[in-house]
Amino acid sequence: MDGDIAYTTRRKTLSVSWTLVTSSFAIIVLLCALCLFFFFHPRTCRQLSGSLAGSTEMLLDEIRDVNYGRLDNNIGTTDVRLPRDVVPESYNLRIVPYLWPDDRGASNSTFDGQVSIVVNVTAPVDNITLHAVDLNVTECLVTRHPKMVLNEHVMMADSFFIPIQETQLDLSKQFFIIKFKDMLEADYQYTIYIKYTGKFQDNMEGFYKSSYRVANETKNRWIAATQFQPTDARKAFPCFDEPALKARFTLAIARPQNMRSISNTGLKMAVNLPKLPSPLSSYEWDAFEETVPMSTYLVAFIISDFEYLSSETFRVWARSEVLSHTHYARDIGPRILKFYEEFFSIPYPLKKTDLVALPDFAAGAMENWGLVTFREIAMLYNEGVSPNSQKERVATVIAHELAHQWFGNLVTPDWWSDLWLNEGFATYIEYVGVDHVEPKWKMEEQFIVAGIQSVFLMDSLKSTHPISARVSRPEEINELFDCISYDKGASVIRMMDHFLTRHVFRKALTKYLNSKAYKNACQNDLWDALTEQAHKDRVMDKTLTVKDVMDTWILQPGFPVVNVTRNYEEDTLIVSQSRFLLHDSKNDQFNNFWWIPLTFTTSSKLDFSVTKPSYWFKPEELMLITETGISSKDWVLFNINETGFYRVNYDSRNWNMLIEYLNDPDSYSNIGTINRAQLIDDAMSLSRAGYLSYQTSLDLTKYLYHETEYVPWKSAYRSFTYLHQMLIKTAIYDKLKAYVLHLISPMYKITGFADNPRDDQLVIYKRFSLLSCACELGHSDCVRNAVAQFQNWRSNPQPEKNNPISPNLKAIIYCTAISYGSEEEWDFAWKMYKMTTVASEKDLLLDALGCSRETWILARFLSYALQSNSSIRTQEISKVFYALTNKVAGQEVAWNYVRDHWRELKSTFVTGFSTMSEIIKSATYHFNTKNDLIQLWQFYKDEEEYLGSAKRSVLQSIENAQANVNWMEKNFKTISNWLQNDTLYVSQYTNEVD
Q1: Tens digits of per-residue pLDDT, 789-808?
Q2: Which of 205, 501, 542, 803 has the fewest Cβ atoms nearer than 10 Å?
Q3: Strand order in the sheet with 135-145
Q4: So what EC number does this one have (predicted)?
Q5: Does the annotation place 404 within a ligand binding site?
């Protein structure tokens, strides 16, 4: 029931007409029916009552008054940080897992642990506080000894036990507190011995269990694995679970004889460990070498029956069935590792590197030092079956995690507020690393659309957050694992790389990493190192520091739009800056300004190679540039290769000159490929936010008729996808379809429905995007070919073994055939999904299963995913929601389920790594009516206390929906008129295709 319900009163009269009687009776019947309906649908009743409490406009006013920045204002109100008077030096950890059936009968899925922690006490204390969650401590002892201490934890003669008064658990802070009768003296070392039991987590956090089956086997094969980032080491052993509290770790694990265990370091040759009790006669101890100093979240261990391939000290592990799919990871990994050693001028700190593909894994991958863990889809590539995009995915994820071995592991942020130092650097350096080993992939160009332009959307919302945000509680920390920390962090680091120059950037990084090796740092430490090198090499004025510049990008939310207004007669430029906001930009009260590196070129220069700033725009509103030497007949284009993290808007005359130049088939390619992509993305986004008329931005898109490069087209597809989402339920959608199909028609004629796997990567991506767009818009030849190839696969006697479809076209063909097909096509794809063992094939089929136009099939798909014995792993359920919301038919199915079953979903999923946040965003991205907005607001009010780490994402979704509603009101008529008046393109498309 929607919220737009209004009541009107009528003046009472003395006469009663027959019409009134029948109407009254009808109303009574309707109310009774509504009562019965709401009796069985209490949530809908609650929504209705909320709507009845006030008018639609009152609710909309309430939404408009939301302070989207309030999350940042409230963060950190509860202090859950550990005291700093007790500092760990080393851990000796032994774990005995009882994961496998019959180990302990009914008591399996538990583990026993013992940990001895050597700590330094720096000031007198009456307690020691550390972290523990879901652990049952059965014994706790503390001993004191002189600071020149232990050898393998053998107590010296003058060591003695410290009387413990009591131990306490503070569940809200996840503390385990050891209280003493007397004060502990400073300048001594103490050993904390804790014996405990724990239970395996079943949500892929902490020390968790997982299972898989080999073909034709009925019993599960079990795995025990860890995922500790950010705050889940405390679920496996009592510890000082904060990144600044680094220590050395010595680990011993008991495991069945038919299995293997691996950890951060290599195995010791001979260790004196206690004999295991008789029920564990089939178990053996594995003892590992001591680690280098590191944070608890990087500790890792896995017990499995996996096998491995190796290249000297580099090993890749996986299930035996898919081990052959790890060849590319095994080949690319050592090459990237060697490149990073050269790039950072620092040898890899450890003796070995293991990469492990896990069937169940919450994150995409995790950089545990020396033992990097992955979802299978992020590490496995099957030549001839997986698409080329999967090969790149494997390379970039491996490059990202290996970059962390230096940036994050060797030098670790003091606290999670600087998570972006880990993730932003690794995200940027992954492109540098892959570009070195796969130069034909043009990773610099790809970063523009995959990194910068993709994060602009979230960062243009008022509810975004600064890159460096204050956090305290675990759920707040989880919120930071988003595209602001990753992609925006990477984008501003790329900007810094360019304004400092690569030479200065690398030299400063090496000094920073060497000075902070095995320690912790904050962003100011990095800024100091970069400034010192920049001043030494004279690439930055000594009156300016890197901190001055970067604080404006790191400590405040959002990004600027640079407005360029030219005086064509006097050869001057007036440049202004303001925060770019997706909606309500005229009422911006943030008053934020940035240090902006300005680069530009003209139609006479056409120099797209120099990215060192021509000018620095100070954090002020206006800047006047005189004597530019720019001819009044030349256009000017700012932000060369989009190295700056900002958008650019021009006066109408300059826009028109750029449009005229682009629309000339002989001249458009003189503008660099990246800047053509920038012009499209900037223009369409400026129009979306109300800074520029759609008349101008749509006129600019006409040039795409002769564009042949991937990156500009990728930018265009993103903008057209938004128009598609907003207009698909309107009367002018056919005109939009006709226009876009006209633009792609020249490329379609050249490309056709064919794939050549030997083509360069960006040619393959361009073809994929082109055919995806064509089939999505109903291009008859595209749909006909897709359906025919899918049917050809279905008719094969052994379709699970023989798939004739080209890997690079599978996603298009699967989705199109299911979209235009019936239950039979869907059931076939579902069957193939359950049968395949290839990770990329499962991924493609899961996406395609959401392409059906039948809502009942999509509802069934969702029920399949959520049932307890589902063939779809829990980690993939968010992908099911995303697949549904990519198509109109599935959007309502997905949203209704999220709205009505939020608390169940929250208990099902891992709360970290943005799983819940992504579900919310994908389910509501298309909202563009007042009713949509009210439903979302009601959901927020109903579930606010249960949202957890998804709260910011819901507020962002509300703001985005509000922006979409405003967009429809402001732009629908303009776009409609433009499409209606541009009949030339519609008729051209009709003639070309028909």
Answers
A1: 999 999 999 999 999 999 99
A2: 542
A3: 160-161, 135-145, 188-199, 110-121, 86-98, 248-256, 283-287
A4: 3.4.11.-
A5: yes
